[in-house]
Amino acid sequence: MTNTPRALQKLIEQFDRLPGIGPKTSEKLVYYLLNRPKEDLKEFADSLLRAKDEITVCPNCYNFSDRSPCGICSDRSRLKDMICVVAETADLQAIEKTTDYNGVYHVLQGNINPPEGITPDKLRIKELTDRISRDKPKEVILALNNDIAGETTTLYLSKLLKNQNLKITRLAKGLPSGSEIEYADDITLGYAIRDRKEIK
Ligand SMILES: [Zn+2]
After folding, report:
1. How confident is the model at residue 30 (pLDDT cuts 50, 70, 90)?
2. One CATH from 3.30.300.350, 3.40.710.10, 3.40.640.10, 3.40.1360.10 for 60-198
3. According to the model, what pLDDT value does residue 41 have?
4. Region 6-54: CATH code
5. What's the predicted TM-score (pTM) here?
6. 16 C-alpha vs ligand 1 centroid, how far in Å?
7. What residues are neighbours of ligand 1 (ion), with CB under 5 Å?
8. What is the pLDDT of residue 174?
């Protein structure tokens, strides 16, 4: 990489920091973008900045939204006594697509992952326990990925929320091991929600 111009190297490093993108893909994306007309790049950069300006985080559930509270929290037809806990907004979107869930959500903004420095205090867990004490939901559904970080988070939360006069459930074992909710198909995910199991 010693012959790579500095500006190019800097840009590749920026892409490399994005989740799920390795150095090879970063390079590919950067070369692709540099081959686009300047107007396209301007539109891309503008959309990014506009989204950052217009999108806010819901103060109740931590979902990304263009209003506060978000559309789901302010929807009167949604069941407020059922909170589905997800790691990311992308997981919330995947569950919404199944149309099998009519409660509200709580977005943790990540999974517990100590090797990567993501300890419980870095996530919206305190906000979740505060919300449970305040809103007194009947059920909390732990809809976390079927991988090590997701399982660690499920285990942590099920212990933390125990004995709170609350039903704690998790998705049915329909999702393949190691899989991510975000990429599960609607039918499998819909089944996993409907057939959720109580954690005792
Ligand atoms: Zn919300």
Report:
1. very high
2. 3.40.1360.10
3. 96
4. 1.10.8.420
5. 0.83
6. 31
7. 58, 60-61, 63, 69-70, 73
8. 65
